[in-house]
């Protein structure tokens, strides 16, 4: 039986990572080339003529026109961080090359920093993924299903049960029926309003959506999509319906990874955890390119201080 080329791709080994981003100078040079691919450009006046001012370990770029000083970190997700860039690159490596993610506690051990610092770093990078994922749209044939995150609680079971966070998973498949892209979006409830809003931002007009018999999924037609409801019933057999093979596989992998890696996640941070899985899945075809791609987006994301990271429902 032939091996899955995506699953068995070479990826980026730790040795290759160290060769490319093993010290602070290499990491700084990489960020400069990604932030200003056409050469330095002053964020205030747009001037290109500049000089480099060295202050201890810091390198500042001073515009020769307006005398504005800036750094490669300023105005980006890396702003105000005292951690070396090589640790940021290490964090990006672990977040992108690990299929099941990495907890902040494990990240702290590997980087040799406190868990609090690792948590901030991880969630800032997850916020970058979340903002990047916002532009993803699925087209063609799409499998869609409702799901929950959260353990069992006392009280009424089923949809709307306390302690559970509802979210929607949708998988775009290729012409030969293979999974291509995925979206994972938390919703306030499984309602027609929520599904209409999601379809308007995450699905291309004309997408052919297949879902179970939950009535709220019919709202995708209001966004110009086609909808085919398939009654699956309930219980274990419902998850084996061929029409939902890939979305059910994805949901099983996500839930297993969250339990195995994080044990539990707080409801207000669910969008970022889902964003990690979505980001990695949609870029799984080239693992080695994930670090430069993530860094390029991070350089174009606004700074994210801790007071915003800890806010509930902040998705920017």
From TrEMBL:
It holds the Pfam family DDE_Tnp_IS1595. Residues 137-282 form the ISXO2-like transposase domain. InterPro entries: Tnp_ISXO2-like, Transposase_Zn_ribbon. This is DDE transposase. It comes from Methylocystis echinoides.
